[in-house]
Design goal:
Blueprint lengths: L2 H7 L3 H11 L3 H9 L7 H8 L5 H5 L7 H4 L3 H9 L1 H4 L6 E10 L3 E8 L4 E6 L5 E6 L6 E4 L2 E5 L3 E8 L3 E9 L3 E7 L5 E6 L5 E6 L6 E5 L10 E4 L2 E8 L7 E8 L4 E5 L7 E7 L2 E8 L2 E7 L7 E7 L12 E4 L2 E6 L6 H4 L4 E7 L1
Antiparallel strand pairs: 1-2, 2-3, 3-4, 5-6, 6-7, 7-8, 9-10, 10-11, 11-12, 13-14, 14-15, 15-16, 17-18, 18-19, 19-20, 21-22, 22-23
């Protein structure tokens, strides 16, 4: 054996592969290498490791949120993904109730919580659901994040805040309204659309300046019966609405408007009874439909009624009114916030946790 062969034997496999690849300059040799058979995974490794019912949960629980597509390789892995969801995603014994969540870009998630210390906090989590910072004495039942900052709102007030170095929240604008704010959504340029209920009666959508929260226009009065969630879908605004006509049973629908508030059409989806919240991601519209016994998640293409992609039933969700950011895109997946029951913090007792519904 030559001295070169002996020296090559002592090199790690990766270095040998890199060295050989650098030497191969002929296209014919490269093609020959591509045609070379690859060593398959040994049968024992498949049956005793990768497809073992005992080891699959141990393997799958190591996957991150962004690896959910890999977990769908087979039924066993997908079952293990679901079985280990509580260990994989963020959860804290210090939290009794989660109110809402909003993604700040792709790397940070803001979560409004009620802690076991009986105080409210805003938690900032990283891509792996590890706690980065906690902002104390912060209560927000609803959250929305855009390029302009973090919005929170209650029945009649909207606030725009700026997160400073993740550890401090500075309120930039706070505005009070005569109407009850039901839901808040943003267009790609940050323009806000709020579905609202007037104190004297009447449902509407109000367009707000994203920096000053000043009202631009309002629309929908006369077309809307009982508003819920609102969402910008391309060049249109979708509003969850319910109707109770005299000659029909109560039904759910979307009322569709242009970005300037011009009424376009009504849309109904077969099987959808009570659409509450919706979010538009990567060309698909995800809608929570609360029904007796559970909440259904509809996944629709923008024209909705004629092109249902799929629907998923999630019977474990018991909250009668899901908040808009309880259906939140983050880390390459769609996060769903669900609880074991009860809407008041004192009855939840750590029952709330994150789960992935499906890959976005």
């Amino acid at each position: 054996m030559s001295r070169l062969a002996i020296r090559l034997q002592s090199l790690p496999q990766k270095e040998i592969a890199d060295f050989t690849a650098a030497l191969v300059t002929s296209a014919a040799h490269r093609n020959e290498a591509d045609r070379a058979p690859h060593a398959p995974t040994p049968t024992w490794a498949l049956s005793k490791v990768l497809l073992s019912t005992d080891l699959a949960p141990v393997i799958i629980e190591k996957l991150g949120l962004e690896d959910s597509a890999a977990a769908q390789a087979c039924k066993l892995w997908w079952s293990a993904w679901g079985a280990t969801v509580a260990r994989r995603f963020w959860g804290s014994e210090d939290v009794r109730h989660i109110y809402s969540m909003a993604a700040l870009g792709d790397k940070k998630l803001c979560v409004s919580v009620f802690g076991t210390d009986n105080t409210h906090h805003l938690l900032v989590l990283d891509h792996s659901f590890q706690l980065l910072h906690r902002i104390d004495q912060y209560l927000a039942a609803n959250l929305l994040a855009t390029q302009h900052g973090l919005y929170d709102w209650d029945d009649t007030t909207i606030r725009l805040s700026q997160l400073i170095e993740d550890s401090r929240l500075q309120i930039r604008v706070e505005k009070h309204f005569d109407e009850e704010i039901v839901s808040l959504a943003a267009a790609p340029d940050g323009t806000l659309f709020a579905s609202a209920k007037a104190a004297a009666g009447g449902e509407m959508v109000v367009i707000l300046d994203p920096l000053t929260l000043a009202e631009r226009i309002r629309f929908g009065t006369g077309s809307l019966n009982e508003v819920q969630g609102v969402c910008v879908v391309g060049t249109e605004v979708y509003v969850c609405d319910h109707a109770e006509p005299e000659d029909e049973e109560r039904y759910g629908r979307f009322q569709v408007f242009s970005l300037l508030g011009v009424y376009q059409r009504e849309m109904r989806v077969d099987g959808m009874q009570n659409p509450c919240r919706l979010v538009f991601i990567n060309g698909r519209l995800y809608v929570t439909d609360h029904q007796p016994g559970g909440t259904r998640i509809f996944v629709l293409t923008p024209d909705g009624a004629s092109s249902i992609v799929s629907s998923v039933t999630v019977p474990s969700i018991e909250a009668p009114r899901l908040l808009p950011n309880q259906l939140c895109p983050f880390a390459g997946a769609l996060l769903l916030l669900r609880g074991a029951g009860g809407s008041e913090p004192e009855v939840d007792h750590n029952a709330t946790h994150f789960a992935t519904l499906r890959e976005v």
